[in-house]
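INFO batch 0412 | record 1 of 1 | parsing
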Amino acid sequence: MHHTGTGLRTLTVVRQDVSLGAGRDLEFGLELLARARTGALGPTLRLYRPAPTVAFGQRDTRLPGFEAAAQACRDNGFEPLVRRAGGRAAAYHQGTLVVDHIEPDTDAVAGSKSRFGYFGELFAEALRTVGVQAAVGEIPGEYCPGEYSVHGTDPADSSRQVKLVGTAQRVVSGGWLFSSVIVVEDSAPIRKVLTDSYAALGLAWDPATAGAANDLVPGLDVPAVEQALLETYAGHAALESASFSSLGA
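INFO prediction complete | emitting tokens
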């Protein structure tokens, strides 16, 4: 797949139908990466709908309001976790789709920067096929800001833009994990928990930037976005399906 190191190889698609729990879901991606780096796992795409989670960045934990922010998450029914990647707090729940792309790669570091742009465009393309006016780039005031975030524009109001996809990457010797979260449905709980936790952390942001794809395209749901994503991926790699049990979670 372009400069990601996959070429035209087969990509195994695994749907995880049930969350393993917020913490276990996060750790399992790292376990798959550990397998890939040793050659025990080939190129794999893991798709799942997560339990309500707020993933804080390492920097967040050093702020004086971190414990209050974590409690705000629990009060809103979200489990607070700390991810190993950078960035600020990001929230997700069953109205989102998590996409973990794991690859063995002997030169994993070389493509780490370009991977963000490549996958950002891939996700934006997938969202455009289901009617979202999607583009890559940070929008003013967004939560967990990133140069390669994917945002959507309200067709009725071009001044209204919302963040729809956040990405993070873990690179090790011999492989990489590129993890993305697409917010598709039910944005209100995400906006609420981020408002409360960012206030506790003392971080400024614009809550209007927290939204979901179906805020922009009414009726859109996770299965439709998942199908669009796989159809877009199919233009870049040969896809084959495998059962989640084959990963031995």
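INFO post-check: Residues 112-129 form the longest helix (18 residues).
INFO record closed
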